[in-house]
Structures are given as C-alpha cells and as structure tokens.
Amino acid sequence: MSPTETKQEYQVIGKRPVRHDGVDKVTGRAVYGADVQLPGMLYGKVLRSPHAHARIKSIRTDKAMSLEGVKAVVTAADLPDPEGRTANLGELGDVPLRNLTRNVLASGKVLYQGHAIAAVAATNPHLAEEALDLIEVEYEVLPPVMDVLEAMKKDAPLLHEDLCTMELGKKSDHHSNIASHQTFRRGDVKAGFASADHILEHEYRSATVHQGYIEPHAATAVWSADGQVTLWCTTQGAFSMRAMVHQILGIPVSKLKVIPTEIGGGFGGKIPSYGEPVAALLARKSRRPVKVVMDRTEVFMGTGPTSASYVKLKMGVTRDGRIVAAEAMLAFEGGAYPGAIVGAGGLCLLAPYNIENLVIDMYDVVVNKPKTAAYRAPGAPNAEHATEALIDEFCELLKMDPLEFRLKNASKEGDVQANDVRFPRIGCIETIEAARASDHYRSKLNGPNRGRGVAAGYWMNAGLTSSVMARLNADGTVTLNEGSTDIGGSRTSIAMQLAESFGIRAEDVSPSVVDTDSVGYTEVTGGSRVTFATGYAAYEAGQALRRQVVEQAAKLWKVEPERVLFEGGVLRDLDDAAKKIGLPELAETLAHRGVDIGARITVTPQKVGGVFGVHIADVEVDPGTGKVTILRYTVVQDVGKAIHPSYVEGQMQGGAVQGIGWALNEEYVYNQEGKMLNASFLDYRMPTSLDLPMIETIIVEVPNPGHPYGVRGVGEVPIVPPLATVANAIAHAVSVRLYEVPMSPPRVVKAMLAKK
User: Fold this and answer.
1) Is 686 within a domain?
2) Is residue 374 part of a domain?
3) Which residues have C-beta within 8 Å of that of residue 262, sequence separation ≥ 6?
4) Which pLDDT value is given to residue 666?
5) What is the C-alpha separation between 703 and 712, in angstroms, rounded?
6) Long-range contacts of 586-589, Cβ-Cβ distance < 8 Å, separation of 24 or more
7) Which residue ranges in the chain fall short of pLDDT 50?
C-alpha cells in the first residue's frame, strides 16, 4: 500500500530506485565470506564437543599434527590468558573477556554440544576433517541443565562454579546459574490490583529458535610476518569484530584490519565472534592464509540462537477496559554464558500501553545451550507474546473489540515507560487506528475452525555511532564509503539520503561498505539503527558537499556564497541570471583545478524514535492434525518516513514471516543428554513461500523529530507481534488457548483433546 501522506515532498526519498548492489548479487559477482580465495590458502575445521556439559581432562593433538597435509592445530592453550580482564566492545558495553575467549575455544569445561575445542588447518577441507578425528579428548561428563526454571533452582548443577548473581546491581555472595536480576517498578501495584474489576494471570513459554540466515559463518585470515592481520568475514559489524578479535588474541587494534564481505543474512546472529580468532590463530601457526567455513550443523549447534524464555504475567483491568496494574517475571536463557537480552524484553513487555502501576522482574540465566545472540528485536517477541495474549483474554471477558481495548490504553507522547523514561513523539495510536480501518480487519471471516487474531508490538530502536566518507567525482557523481554492513538494502537507503541532501539522483551516488581502515568508527548493523544513524551521517555529508560546491561556485563567480542557489543539479547566481553552471560541469572544472570536494562525517544521534506495529492474522486449524494454515496476514507499522518503500515493505514482510515460523514450528529439540536432534533445515522447520500467503503491508508515517527526514528504524518490530497474533487467532478458531510456542500440530492437537 502507499505510505500515509506527509506534508514534505522529496525528490529522492520515498521513491523506489533499483538497488545499487542488485546487479552484482543476481549475477553472482558479489563476494560472500566463503567466496574469498587467496594464494596458498589452507582450510580450517573445528572440533566440537559431543557433550552438553563436561570437564576437559586432556587434549592430545600430536596424531592430527602428524597427518600429511596438516599445517597447524590450535586449542585454547594458544590463546592469551583472559582471566580478570574485561572486553570493551564500545557502545555494545563491557563483558568478561573470559566468556568471549572460552566460547571461541573451550578451556576447562565444555558447556554445550557443539562447543569449539580445537581447530585444524590443512591443504584441503577433507584432510582437515580427517585430522579432527585424530584429536583425542578425554572428558568427565557432567549432568546438563537445559531449562531456564530448572537452572534457577538452588540444587541445579552449576555451569560456572564462580558465577554469583548480580542482584539489583549488587553482586551476591552465593553461586548460582542466575547471572543477574533486575527490576522495573512504577506506581503502587498492590493498590492498582485492588482497583481492578478483573485479574488474569498466566505463564508463557517460548523455545530456543535460530535466526535461520541462509549463509553460514565464514572467516579468512592472513597473519603477515610483521604482525599485521587481515581478516575477511561475514559480520554485522566490522568494527565490533575488530574489537573482539584484537582483545581475544591480545594484538594491537592497529595491527588488525577487518574487511566485511557481503552477508547472506544475520538478524543479530552474526554480531558475535566465532571462527574469526580461530582462523587468525591457524594463520599465525601455519604462516599461510586460512579460511574457516561452518557447515549448517555447526551453525545450529555452535552459534548463538535466541533465548528460550519463561514469562509469568498478571494484569488487572477495570470493567470498562482500563489496565490498572501489571506484575511480571521474565526468565531468559543466556545459553552457556551470561548475556540474555532480558532487559530489552522487560522494557518492551508493556510498552504499547500506558500502565501506571507495574513491576517487572528480569532474570538472565545460564543453561547448557549455545551462548545466545541477538535475534531481531531480541527479547521483545517472547515478552510481548504474554502481554498481547493476556489482553486478548480480557477482550473476550469484557466482550470488547481487541483494537478498541488497545486504543483505550495506548501509549502516547509524554507517557512514562517501564524504565521511567518518557515517550517522545510516537505512532502507537496511529498504527492501531490504521489496523482498525484496514480492509483486512473490516472483512468477514467465514467457515469452521477459522479465527482472526490481532496483536501489537514495540521495539525501542538504537542510535549509536556511524561514519561515512563522501567525495564528489569529476563527472558530478558522488562516491560514498560507509561502515554499516548491508543486510536489507541499506546501501541504497543511505545513498538516497545523501542524494536528497546534496540534490542529486540516487543513481548518481556509488555506495560501498568498506573495511575498518577506510572509514570512521561505525557500530553494528543491528538495533534498527542503520538507515536512521548511518543515514543521518549521509545527510550531514550531503549538506557538507552542498556547502562546498556553493562556496566554489561563489569563488568562480567572485560573489558571496549567499547569492548562489543550488537546485535541480544547477548552481545559479540569484542576482545575475547569466551565471549558472551544472553540477557535472562545475565538478569537472574543480577537478582540473585540483580542488577536492569531500566530507568525513561521524554522528551519534540520540533521538532514535521507537516503533510500534499491529498485526492481523486469519488462520484455519485442521482439527484432525492440528496443522495451522495462515489464510491472510497484514502488517501495520509506523516507519517514521519510508526512505525506500519497497525495502520497508520487505522488512515488514520478512520479520512477520520469521515471527510466524517462531509461532508455529521453529524450535531446538534436545534429548535428556542435551544433544540437539534437529540441527538441519530438513528437521528445523522454517516457513517457505509455499506455507504462507502474500504478507500485506500498511505503512504509517509519524515522522521522528530526531531525524532530518523523520526516519524510524523498521527492521525489528515486525517480528514482535506474530507470536501473539497467531496464538489469538488459533484461540478464536478452535476455542483453545496455547501458552507455549511453537504451537506445532502436536501441541495444538493435545490442547484440543485436553479441552474435550
């Protein structure tokens, strides 16, 4: 659908130019991580633990090293001692270096099946795999802890004997699998519940799920004789990767250059470091380039999925549908090391609604699964599933339209969030109203075992630091270098903002994602920040170029810059109609004179503008098999301003599809020994185009006052509402509520039989 009308008209923004990287990708010229080829290159393979929890008693690598064609073998003993040191990841915060290092190569213990133990570099990948079988590891197998609530018990086996809970900001003196406990609190919850006419309370579960990116992790390293390390890798943040590798390996950051390749998906899962330090270690030992590429099983078992979770939510409402109190407990699995993004879940849990009295307790818990990583609005889908499903029950109880209920309680500018921060200008109300006015919501849904569900969602978005470098070429085009990995077409959305700001066509900007030596510091592609923050830098670059060409034209004509108008690609003297020059002609003139027009911009914008969305789903449930079919699905979302509407729609559709997969089928399946039973796309069931209808989109534009074009990041909030949207639709189809996702056919059938 067309974006909502806005007052500001733009020449470039809001249009749909062909993406700059499209030709390379459809013709196969684009270089992805596994495509890197260097002279004399070796192939690295990683030995991984078959156990979920075990002590490493000994590792013997001599047999592997003696195999002809094997050039290097490394273990954790080849890494610097991380004890007592903290890894600084810039604006991503500080973490114990030990956790980063031991997740790359295990030391002392293995903490999940797939935990990396050793690595081999050989002249071909088959030899490297053969050598892995020759590495002898002696284990003392320990009982695993695979569930967040089991791990929280006082008598649970400890993953880390020295881990003590950080309790409300203070370190406790007792050892536990609970890494941290934090709380949001507002108002008087007891009084709030006392004023409620209806109170409901339920427990909600979500399973471990993977981001499901198509391209596996890949890294190639060269360690030169003078200590310079060059690293090609598929990463969401070249500077973040540089920071991790330099600290893990203990080498100066000035000695490390990270070259980001094209990336075949990430969704947060390609922010952490896995094979990159291993490739570098093998390159140093072998004195040759080494490439390490994971296979799909390694991706599932050895990289970070999102947190499985437990949410207990209690809410109270008045008879006219006002939410007066909420009390929640969130326990998220961090995997083998602390770091579950439970704080974001707590912040998003109730964000769409203005609730005066609330308390939210959040627990980060370690279990014997891979260390979790971000996954598209990390923490929010798990948390808001509970809120939106419980609200649907209240709507049934009160016989109230679900969107009317949400409008009555919707957050607006000036309302206070759970963390006591006031909302700036937001579009929560506008998205609910757009959903209510949609053709989908107004249509009839007929037939047995069919139901319609709705749910809202929120993501706070991020700003952080971004840099660009722009230079005017002699033909009037602009070369744009930026440091943000392009996952969803951001090269084009950033180029469009520079083009709009400078006053040229998007096609006249040549954007490139460059290495860490070629652009200023730039944070990761994540948090829905790139089109907002890197786009902000591009806007500033365009403004800087505009000022410079105006100044140069003024010098050429010997007039004051205030007399020069730059419009439509032409510079004019406002007082002398005879003086005018096209940008390409001026650029050529300046090039001949040796005048360089360029800009280096670094920004850290603060007013990011959170995002709200509302989803509508129609489903049909097969009462015999429990299979849920999505009949129709609509995504309504405030995007601030749609820079390239096609890419915005694609993000909305992609996030919804991932959320639907999470809702219906996706989960890690483990046995009692902690071994994953479905580590392949054959058994880990993700939705395909054959499983879904076309996802309909409605773009709402409530401009973000913190950005010159009103941009709000769009990539993450569309994964938030689907869990509850589908759950509510199933409940209306067959009058059965499920409190655990995925709502797979066996679970649906079981719930229906239990009701009968």
Assistant:
1) yes
2) no
3) 21, 25, 30, 31, 32, 33, 234, 486
4) 98
5) 8
6) 586/476, 586/549, 586/552, 586/553, 586/556, 587/472, 587/473, 587/474, 587/475, 587/476, 587/549, 588/474, 588/475, 588/476, 589/556
7) 1-6
- Pick from 641, 647, 714, 531: nearest CA to 10: 641
CA 568 to chain centre: 38
Domain boundary, last residue among 603, 631, 648: 603
Domain that holds residue 691: 379-461+609-755
**CB distance 197 to 317 below 8 Å:** yes
Tally the domains of the chain.
2
- Which of 548, 522, 546 has its CA nearest to residue 601? 522
Query: Scanning the structure block, which residue is given the tokens 């005879």?
Result: 578
The C-alpha atoms of residue 60 and residue 661 are separated, in whole angstroms, by 42
* pLDDT at residue 2 in the model: 38
Pseudo-torsion of CA 486, 488, 491, 494, nearest 10°? -120
What's the full length of the chain, in residues? 756
Strand partners of residue 204 = 311
Q: How many CB atoms lie within 10 A of CB 508?
A: 19
For residue 285, give the nearest of 242, 223, 229, 230 by alpha carbon: 223
- CA–CA gap between residue 702 and residue 135 (Å, rounded): 59
For position 4, what pLDDT does the model report? 42
Q: Please tell me the predicted confidence (pLDDT) of residue 180.
A: 97
Q: Is residue 554 a part of any domain in this protein?
A: yes
> 3-class DSSP state for residue 544?
helix
Mapping DSSP to helix (H, G, I), strand (E, B) and coil, where does residue 249 land?
helix
415's tokens = 């309302």
> For 671-707, b where at least 16 C-beta lie within 10 A, e where not — what string?
eeebbbeebeeeebbbbeeeebeebbbbbbbbbbebb
Q: Between β-strands 323-335 and 358-366, what pairing exists: parallel, antiparallel or unpaired? A: parallel
Instruction: Identify whether the C-beta of residue 469 lies closer than 8 Å to the C-beta of residue 600.
Output: yes
Q: Looking at this protein, which amino acid is placed at residue 167?
A: E
437 Cβ neighbours under 8 A, 6+ residues apart = none
